[in-house]
Amino acid sequence: MQVTAVVQQWLARHARLRDALPGVLVVLVAVAAGAVGTGGSGWHAPRLGGVTWTALACAPLVVRTRWPLPVVLVTLAVDLVHMARTPDFSLSPAASLVALYTLATRSSRRIAWAVGVTATLVITAVFAVTHSQSPVSGDTLLRFDLAIAATALGIASRSRRLRLDRAEARAERAERTREAEARRRVTEERVRIARELHDVVAHHMTLVNAQAGVAHHLLRTDPEIAYQALAHIKDNSRTALDELRATVGLLRQPDDAPDSRVPIPGLADLDSLITNLRAGGLPVELERTGLPRSAAPTTELTAYRIVQEALTNTHKHASANHVKVTLDYGTDTLRITVTDDGLPGTAQDSGTARGPGTGHGLIGMRERAAAIGGTVIAGPRPEGGFRVHAELPLVLTPRP
Fold first, then answer.
1. Reported confidence tier of residue 244, pLDDT bands at 50, 70, 90
2. Is a pLDDT exceeding 60 seen at residue 31?
3. Fewer C-beta within 10 Å: the chain N or C terminus?
């Protein structure tokens, strides 16, 4: 197999030598055939006339793949003259057969059959006339069959090569598609983990910072409240570490099942979230309307993160006296509304003013909602403050 592959590679680099090989073989056979005596008379010197005509007919085969149709015409003309001048030499149409085969492998099926059938009829007619044979004699039909077979084999070879090329192209496209799909999945996973990290870090660090400010402010005047604030800092930092460990653990897992004992947060955890925010100084009211029902885990996580991010933004970027979170359960949709009465960029925390955010939180909320077929609308309220409204499907339908 290795020797064959090396030979094929060498011939591929030397096109003219590859094209000449069939002609060389035909000439060698002509020399051998011309040296065989007739009537059992044994070997004798080759008949130079027949060999010369065969060599002349095979000479154009050197460029048979570059100009297949002109080569057919030239070789056919030489072979016909050869048959007329040397009717007793049986190899006269061999070069034409090679040329017909090459033409069939290099041109369309219509051209190949048109030229092949025409050349076949001409070869059989000239052979029948020059050899005084009947058009339906065995020798005449043999030439007819050989010419038709050369054309048919060339067409079959071309069809097989085209099928292999198409199969290779499909395989390459499939490979590129798989690579693109893998890159897309990796990108989506990175974006998802980035959202998780942003939500965890932004929320818990905001609470820790707010509670640290409370503890620092009241440490001398009211040690008891300062002690409670420090306890909240401890709890929130431990929760943040657990969630960070669970999120980063996704990067270390070989499959889609992270080995983590930390449960995925959902709507049932909103009460604990709001309690922590109230302890940090943000007045939050939670209201549930409609008939509460269980939602898909992904919907619950998305809803929790949207509320968490909205409240974190309010705490960081607005001085709000009242914040309201509403969960409205519809027939198949969960509507979430978070409103506040604060002014952007006026939040105060132990005398430290907060500036406007980067906008990554709002982008993350929209991306989370869009990933499960929901929507998020956020913007300032006409009467003052800010409003975040999300609509999420309670039951997820598989994507087509």
1. low
2. yes
3. C
Residue 191 near residue 367 (C-beta atoms within 8 A): yes
**Rg for the chain, CA atoms, rounded:** 43
What pTM does this model have?
0.45
Distance, CA of 261 to CA of 93 (rounded, Å): 83
pLDDT tens digits for range 201-242: 666 666 677 767 767 777 777 777 777 777 777 776 766 666
Give 267-306 pLDDT, tens digit per residue.
888 888 888 888 777 888 999 998 888 888 888 888 988 9
The answer to whether 376 touches 348, Cβ cutoff 8 Å, is no
Looking at the predicted structure, is the pLDDT value of residue 79 above 80? yes
Q: Residues 102, 64: contact at Cβ < 8 Å?
A: yes
DSSP string for 139-208: HHHHHHHHHHHHHHHHHHHHHHHHHHHHHHHHHHHHHHHHHHHHHHHHHHHHHHHHHHHHHHHHHHHHHH
Strands 323-329 and 284-290 come out as parallel
Around Cβ 243, how many Cβ atoms within 10 Å? 21
CATH number of 266-400: 3.30.565.10
